[in-house]
Design brief:
six-stranded mixed β-sheet; 14 strands; about 25% strand; elongated
């Protein structure tokens, strides 16, 4: 019987253990393949900031442009309430926000009072590996001073823009948004246009606080959102060099006004509607009113000079 089976081509059945091993290997390979297919791809982040406001469709149009080029992109709105035409406010917000985002983040910034003029549109790469798509009007100044700039390129590649005829007044839609999306999609940023000399980037002439034997001279540069707190260009570290301790009062000269303000830790350390000095969340000296507007109460409109003498022993 055994000889007959061999002549007809019959083979002895494989052991059950071998079949189990084969099945397990096939299942393992299939599982690895499925896991690879479902592993999420890294998603690029665009941080978007303008002075457009939100009363019309400008911001939504720009976001639509970005999504049409890079559908998977994550768009974070930093703010669209930059004071109209205020490049200084724009550079201040960039300076405050960029440390909290990782390398590879793309910042699309449109605060562009000279849109349509001869000013350049640029992409700047910082030494932290972040990209900034913006007009060359000084917006990058504070980031440049703190983080350094690796390289910059002028935006000239029409294939990275949209529209057969570029608008002379809406470069946020036609230039900055599509370029940011191309970067988010993974396109090589060197394709955007020719490299620029870093020394030729436009810079703001931002006043610096000055510490001398008399005291500290600085400037109120902005108000803090809707609250009316005063934002200065004086670092908390420089203020502490004057010798003031928390709980002490400091004599302050703002423009032509003089007042004595307590230096405290937070707003509730003084009674309601009383003024105070404090070090704000960005590490700068601030002036505030507990649950009120310092700017409105004392009629302060930035920019205005501020002077604080050294503490008396």
């Amino acid at each position: 019987m055994r000889l007959t089976m061999l002549r007809r081509g019959f083979r002895r059945p494989e052991p059950l253990g071998s079949l189990i091993v084969v099945v397990l290997v096939l299942l393992l390979c299939t599982g690895n393949s499925a896991a690879a297919e479902t592993t999420p791809k890294s998603v690029s982040t665009i941080v978007f900031m303008t002075d457009f406001g939100t009363v019309d469709d400008s911001v939504a149009i720009c976001r639509g442009v970005m999504y049409s080029i890079a559908p998977e992109v994550r768009i974070v709105d930093l703010t669209h309430q930059v004071a109209p035409f205020s490049i200084l406010d724009g550079t201040r917000f960039l300076y405050g926000a960029t440390p909290y985002y990782p390398p590879g983040t793309i910042f699309v910034v449109v605060v562009d009072p000279t849109v349509g003029s001869t000013r350049k549109a640029v992409v700047v790469k910082s030494k932290r590996g972040q990209y900034f798509v913006l007009p060359d009007n000084g917006l990058i100044t504070l980031v440049q001073d703190r983080d350094g700039i690796e390289a910059a390129r002028e935006i000239t590649n029409r294939e990275w823009m949209i529209g057969a005829a570029l608008s002379s007044t809406f470069h946020g839609r036609d230039i900055f948004s599509p370029v940011g999306a191309h970067l988010a999609r993974g396109d090589d940023w060197t394709g955007v246009g020719p490299e620029l000399e870093l020394s030729k980037l436009v810079r703001l002439n931002i006043a610096l606080a000055k510490l001398d034997e008399r005291g500290l001279s600085g400037e109120v540069i902005a108000t803090d959102g809707p609250f009316g707190n005063l934002v200065t260009n004086i670092s908390g570290d420089d203020f502490l060099k004057l010798g003031y301790l928390r709980g002490q009062s400091a004599h302050i000269i703002i423009g032509t006004n003089e007042m004595d303000l307590p230096f405290v830790r937070t707003f509730s350390d003084v009674p309601l509607h009383e003024p105070l000095l404090y070090i704000d969340s960005r590490g700068r000296l601030g002036l505030a009113l507990n649950q009120g507007s310092f700017a409105a109460t004392y009629g302060v409109k930035p920019p205005v000079a501020i002077f604080i003498p050294r503490a008396k022993n």
